[in-house]
């Protein structure tokens, strides 16, 4: 009996021990999980504190921004577009031919501003303004006329040309214009064997590099008021524009609403105005500047009045804004009907200088 009782007691003791062990074993993971959760919460708070400390130390180490005296804020004063670097270079103004033998031209698509003048014989000539860089190839380059010389001086630019009219030479001498004339500085030019003279004269980045680098720095103010946003309640649509210069020569612009550009054509829409790379010329803004003109000799050379002011049409965004232009402090300003300076789109601007009375259809 005693041995049986001993065995029963032993079994009972073992059973109790096992039950107790199971009870402890079931509770232990809960305690461990709670401890892990607490550790994770603590760790997250510590990480947040460390991040705050690092940010405070970083802000203390950032140097103060240096304010440069000449700072364009990375925006071109000629186009209102961003530029890759801050430049203080002299603008370059180039006299470029527009006779049929001169087409397609080189470099016009890379100019910041392009003027078109009716000079003589029903043929126009361009003055292309480049800044801060000039393209590899510009031309064909032709002779200077007073209106081109005078306009180049608005930008205090280096004027590049090949000879001049009698009045042009006189103006270059009297005004002490910064210029390179191929007749006297031929090392800055070359002639292409692919065209006949005189429609084969060019210049560009490589021949001009050292000369441009030697010029004093020039700081330019914004040449126009560039749009950031525009609200116009009273406007007139202008999506197809024809400018009849003289005789059989006319310039046509067609509005491309997808890119908000005006595509340029010559005489009709089957003849897009191309550059040598086969790209069609286009404009973000077109300013038509009406001027007094008069014929001064038997050749038909024109005297162009850039002082007296006159009417102006601005074409942008498929609309037209009418106003006037004035000469102020050595530059020309374009004003809307309220007398405020016009606002234009960032991008390339074409300025069509036309005789008073020229037909502008849109």
Helices and strands: which structural class? Answer: alpha+beta
Overall spatial form:
globular
Number of E-type strands? 22
List the total number of helices.
Answer: 4
How would you describe what is shown here?
With 362 residues, this protein is an alpha+beta fold. The chain is 24% helix and 30% strand. It has four helices and 22 strands. The strands form five sheets. Strands 1, 2, 3, 4, 5, 9, 14, 17, 18, 19 and 21 form an eleven-stranded mixed beta sheet that branches. Strands 13-12-11-10-22 form a five-stranded antiparallel beta sheet, with no helix packed on it. The N and C termini lie far apart (126 Å).
Short description:
This protein is an alpha+beta fold. It has helices at 2-61, 146-154, 166-174, 205-214; strands at residues 92-97, 113-120, 123-130, 158-161, 179-181, 190-191, 201-202, 225-226, 236-237, 240-246, 249-256, 261-266, 282-283, 285-291, 293-295, 302-304, 310-316, 319-328, 331-336, 343-344, 349-355, 360-361. The strands form five sheets. Strands 1, 2, 3, 4, 5, 9, 14, 17, 18, 19 and 21 form an eleven-stranded mixed sheet that branches. Strands 13-12-11-10-22 form a five-stranded antiparallel sheet, with no helix packed on it. Strands 6-7 form a two-stranded antiparallel sheet.
